[in-house]
Amino acid sequence: MKNYFPSQLENTSIPWKNNTTILGILNEPGIHRTIMLDYDALHSWADRHWESSIIPSLSEFISIEALSPGFEPEWGRKGELQGTIDLFCKWVEEQNLDGCSMATLSLEGRTPILIINIEGTAPGEVLFYSHLDKQPSKPWLWSEGLSPLKAVRRDPWLFGRGSVDDGYGGYLCISAIKALQEHDLKHPSATFLIETCEESGSYDLPAYLDAYAEHLGNPDLVVVMDSGGPDYDRIWTTDALRGLIHGTLSVRVSHEGVHSGMAGGAIPSSFRIARILLDRIEDSKTGKILIPSFHTDIDQSLESSARDIAGVVGDRIWADLPVVDTLAPQSGDVAQMLLDVNWRPALSVIGADGLPPVQTAGNVLRTNTDLALSVRLPPGVDSEQALIELTEILESDPPYGAEVRFIAHPPADGFKAPPLPNNVSTALKEAAIALTDSPPYPTWVGGTIPFMAMMQAKYPSAAFLCTGASGPGNNAHGPDEKLHIPAAKRLTAVIAAVTRAVGI
User: Is there a smaller number of Cβ atoms within 10 Å at the N or the C end of the chain?
Assistant: First the structure.
């Protein structure tokens, strides 16, 4: 049922309950209007909508493997990336949104994208970003009764590959606009950019940003639903993301395997050579990256912010990680741990080739060792220059004259968010307090969202809100990936409130 303020406010109808907060003031000649939002009503609506509409469609999405092109060269032939777009479009059509139009775009040889435009009924423009491609699943690592390609609900979780990264994002943001329309609340124009190459570094996205710039408008606010925070009790915003270099270090020493008893000690081990090369970039005793240009200055402000976040999350940042009982962290100080995983560079070996399984390994010297490297870079480090430097360090003067190559994916810069405008910041704070009894908390995420840096360069005057329902135990990219359903429902109401504020 529609509830109206007195007659002079008849154009701003809203539901009215106890949990109501002043969103803004509008002044017209002779009229003083106060616009309020009922967060309980928005949250209740989101709860019902998730149960009746989002979860069924999101469950279908989970059943589509939809590997990112970096993991599936035959993505075009398989058609699963397009299949996720088709599924999402079907769901959007069912929402019966006012002023909605959609276009699936496919540049030759590139993964498809979806652009959705919803006409605004208030000033301002908001651009929402999400992605539908996924990481490999490794089903044998999932717990009993769970499968990466079968949605399983065990409250408060929805299990399945792509549930939290980032299948839910588009559903949530579309639903935020629908919530406003359902409650007769005006909203700015909304554009949704949904890609299918994010898990491979979004290397197809720049071409689309150039080719279809006119369809993306000039946003006042960019909302990215691909992040989260250290707990599910608060609304967290991501103020910084690390950049990424992802590539393969290949060391080759021979053309065929040789008996280790005959040549061991004569032919240098490809694995040992790889170790020597890694020692050029990392202190193996401490994990410190040895390349000075890969570091950024950690000033007193960052140190203070780290202590503030540490005061909220405490020892959970380590306790929630699925480590073996005897493992100790690289740093026992929580604040320093936060800086380590967000503002300092780090090297991880995330894959290997040339190594036979232990069960079938014979006494044969291997021809090669290939290591997949992930190098995280702090915000502010130029990833292109870092890649050039890293490649030179790894390939120059190879030990024993071995064949050494480092082949990398396109690198990604990190991201540091500018301050939110007052209207958006106020709306975010009020919604968070109303729904969580706590203000929103800024945090950092050590991962990489290449889109953020791309869009910040393209729209330097836009504000950025990077948030999401990700949190402890969600296992994005890993076994038993899962979405925290209550957090997603609550965030739907928050995003609705924030979007509403852009046009005020």
Answer: N
Residue 299 tokens, joined: 């000033």
Is-contact 206 76, C-beta < 8 A?
A: no
Judge if pTM exceeds 0.85: no
Here the tokens at position 476 are: 């994005």
Sorted by where each starts, the structural domains of the chain and their CATH numbers stand as: 50-241+414-502 (3.40.630.10), 243-295+344-408 (3.30.70.360)
Query: How many other C-beta atoms are found inside a 10 Å radius of the C-beta of residue 222?
Result: 25
Structure confidence by residue, pLDDT tens digits, 447-485: 888 888 988 999 999 999 999 999 988 999 999 999 999
d(CA 484, CA 455): 28
> What is the Cα–Cα distance from 152 to 137, expressed in whole angstroms?
15
- Within 8 A by CB and 6+ apart from 166, the residues are 130, 131, 132, 198, 225, 226, 468
Task: Write out pLDDT tens, residues 427-450.
Answer: 999 999 999 999 999 999 888 888
Rounded (10°) angle between helices 39-49 and 168-182: 130
Residue 195, amino acid: E
Closest CA to 375 of 298, 290, 315: 290
CA separation for the pair 264, 379 (Å, rounded): 44
∠ CA(374), CA(377), CA(378), 5° rounding?
150
Contact 188, 126 (CB under 8 A): yes
